[in-house]
């Protein structure tokens, strides 16, 4: 039974993503975002459990990717679709087709995960933005819109050009050849983990000031830091 524990946790990741989609279809954006974060917790602990119990399996690797497609690809796409659908766009046969652009995130998330499964270069770091990072960024947008401190940004965040820019930017980053560092550390030495400590300090300060609305800013900081780190090598 022990070998099935990591896979069971992975299935909880998938279940959380499915619940997020249902919640979003009923207009509960914040709750949908929360369920994506719940999925991320399960996504972390399935790998942790597999290492702890030494229960690695090819089945587990496939389940993990398939679950991530739903939780960090399809579910975030529904959030972007929801906000784009509030905007008058280009209609064909009575349908506003602009919101469907959101599902390019799901397509590129699937491409990113498929590449990851066959790329032996990504053992200690990532080539291309990890799909969960994209998913968590999108999941955090409803929190940002509810923040009293960032109320002035609500019109900007729900602007169709901003949302379309998110789709284009994150779709590109996920399948790009840009290296992104992993948050796993082998030791506590500052010199070897300087970039992680800098990100952690920025995240702590941001959460103190903005609470959960800080998440998209932390994600953007991670992206910029990774790109700058690559340019300085």
Give a description of the structure.
- The model has no long low-confidence stretch (mean pLDDT 86).
- The protein has helices at 5-25, 29-53, 58-84, 104-118, 131-146, 154-157, 160-175, 194-210, 215-231; strands spanning 91-92, 95-96, 125-127, 179-181.
- Helix 1 packs antiparallel against helix 2 and helix 3 runs parallel beside helix 5 (131-146).
- It has nine helices and four strands.
- The longest helix has 27 residues, at 58-84.
- The strands form two sheets. The chain has a two-stranded antiparallel ribbon. It has a two-stranded antiparallel ribbon with strand order 3-4.
Q: Could you list some keywords that capture this structure?
A:
233 residues, mainly alpha, two-stranded antiparallel ribbon, 4 strands, 68% helix, globular
